[in-house]
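Re: weekly structure request thread

Next one in the queue (107 aa):
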Amino acid sequence: RDSPQPPLREAAYGILCKLYQEHAETYPAFRRRLLEDAATLPPPDPRVVADWEARLSVELAAERDRATEELFALGRSGIPIARALLAAPDPEVRARADYVLNRLAEP
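Done, posted below.
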């Protein structure tokens, strides 16, 4: 997978949470900038999108939930993947991708 290993992901998430707590007043501007910058990222590899699509459409809800949180945890680098997933044939995958994008865009 192209995503970081879980310990690295958890550490990155912890750092982001700490930054948010210490700089909450600048967080909305940071989030807007994050999404604007993400628009300049190249489109994701179709194989990566297919892998995420498979993970977001597995039978077990807990696994779909975990994949959704992992996609959100990618932050900026996950935006192109989530955008690509909006075109998935499975409505569950589209809904989860939309959820991730909306969470990333929250002020």
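The radius of gyration is 14 Å. The mean pLDDT is 81.
Next request, please.
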